[in-house]
Structures are given as structure tokens and as C-alpha cells.
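Backbone-to-sequence.
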């Protein structure tokens, strides 16, 4: 399964729920990187990302809201989180946290 391979091969980007790592912001073209590395379609790459985010959205949004560098599948810096992206992630994070408190 691609998700399992991502958690093994890129644990900083896709930490497994059983470890103590926090995710880091993905490179903007992470879906394309997944397509190339794992020889899958765009649809499959999007499904992989959305499936991972189902259980890790809050941690990922926090990483983007914190800002800093974005990282590719090899763990190399690949751009930075913009101020607008930080703001959007912060607003979405407030919504996600607020929904969980009801």
C-alpha cells in the first residue's frame, strides 16, 4: 500500500500514528512526486493524500500554520509556507478543533 510505504520511506512527512513525530508541510507538488515515485495515477495520489489527512488533518494544519519550509518526499526543503497559507491553515484548524468540541 502506498500509504504504508510513505510512512516508512518519508516518516517526517507522513508519520505513522504510533510514533511521536509531527508532520511537516509538504512540497506543493507532493502529489506529482507520489505519482512519479509510486507509478500511480493522479487520482490515486490524491486518494492517498486525502486518506492520510483523514486521521492527521489537525497535526498537518498545525504544521502549516506554524510556517517554515515545505519538504519533498526525500525530506529536502522545497519552498516555504506563505503567510496566506499560514492564515488559511490557522482558520481551518480553528474550525477542525471547534467541530471536535461539540
Amino acid at each position: 500500500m502506498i500509504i504504508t510505504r510513505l510512512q516508512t520511506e518519508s516518516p517526517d512527512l507522513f508519520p505513522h500514528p504510533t510514533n511521536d513525530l509531527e508532520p511537516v508541510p509538504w512540497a506543493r507538488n507532493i502529489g506529482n512526486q507520489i505519482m512519479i515515485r509510486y507509478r500511480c495515477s493522479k487520482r490515486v495520489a490524491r486518494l492517498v493524500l486525502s486518506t492520510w489527512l483523514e486521521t492527521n488533518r489537525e497535526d498537518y494544519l498545525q504544521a502549516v500554520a506554524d510556517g517554515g519550509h515545505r519538504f519533498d518526499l526525500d525530506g529536502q526543503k522545497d519552498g516555504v509556507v506563505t503567510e496566506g497559507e499560514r492564515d488559511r491553515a490557522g482558520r481551518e484548524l480553528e474550525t477542525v478543533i471547534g467541530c471536535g468540541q461539540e
